[in-house]
Design goal:
238 residues; alpha/beta; Rossmann fold; globular
Length: 238
């Protein structure tokens, strides 16, 4: 008797499940509740933004740079997680897209294991995922040093091909290397993950697609949905 393969439903976070990016909102929350004085360091972040715009810093490097100046080079992990939990409560209440919640619920009812895969920092993505009722997360991770979280990245920024590689590592680590993957995202940078899903025999869904993703989807016949009005956010392009 042939067993039915495990099915995994993977969702991007920013502008897929929510109507805006999360990083700038987390930074704003941290500054307001934990370190208002760090607003004085915004000019340093602006310099990094200029360097990023000129191509002198990568996405991972600008993430480290803004973390270094606005959150701090080294923060007690328990403090950071407590703030992340409080942030997630407000952020999900204000910015979660109702159709996205319904899609996740439908996948759970269908028996699929749901995963959120995001380039955002795992220390707050896990708190957001919990508010969506999702236990599994693949995200960018910060280096831990004892009981502290540093601004350095533990591996690659979970973006583009690096997100696919991180997702493949997670699947292998969970004993799910042969699983059927269904992937939903808003952005063309996730094409490697869309391709992973199709190669596994799964499906893809372009939710709130960027202009470039919408063009790809139209060419390839991929389904598109619009789950709500999407807003831009400071410091984030995708």
């Amino acid at each position: 008797m042939t067993s039915t393969p495990t099915e995994i439903a993977v969702y991007d976070l920013d502008r897929t499940l929510t109507d805006t990016g999360s990083w700038a909102h987390f930074i704003r929350f941290w500054l307001a509740h934990e370190a208002p004085w760090r607003v004085l360091l915004l000019p340093m972040v602006a310099l990094g933004g200029v360097a990023y715009g000129l191509g002198w810093l990568s996405r991972g490097q600008i993430k480290r740079w803004s973390h270094r100046w606005l959150i701090g080079p080294r923060v007690a992990e328990q403090r950071l997680l407590a703030v992340a939990d409080a942030f997630a409560f407000d952020f999900v209440a204000d910015h979660a897209l109702a159709p996205a919640r319904a899609a996740i619920a439908a996948d759970a009812v269908a028996g699929r294991r749901v995963v959120i895969a995001s380039a955002s920092h795992g220390f707050y993505v896990r708190a957001i995922a919990e508010r969506f009722g999702v236990a599994d997360v693949v995200a960018t991770e910060a280096v831990r040093d004892g009981g502290f979280v540093t601004h350095a990245l533990d591996g690659a920024n979970c973006y583009g091909a690096a997100k696919r590689a991180a997702l493949e590592r997670w699947l292998a680590g969970e004993g799910l290397a042969g699983a059927v993957v269904h992937f939903t995202s808003d952005h063309h940078s996730d094409l490697p993950c869309f391709e992973l899903a199709l190669a596994s025999g799964g499906t893809v869904l372009c939710a709130n697609p960027s202009a470039r993703l919408a063009a790809f989807a139209a060419e390839r016949g991929w389904p598109q949905v619009h789950w709500g009005r999407i807003r831009g956010s400071l410091l984030e392009r995708a």
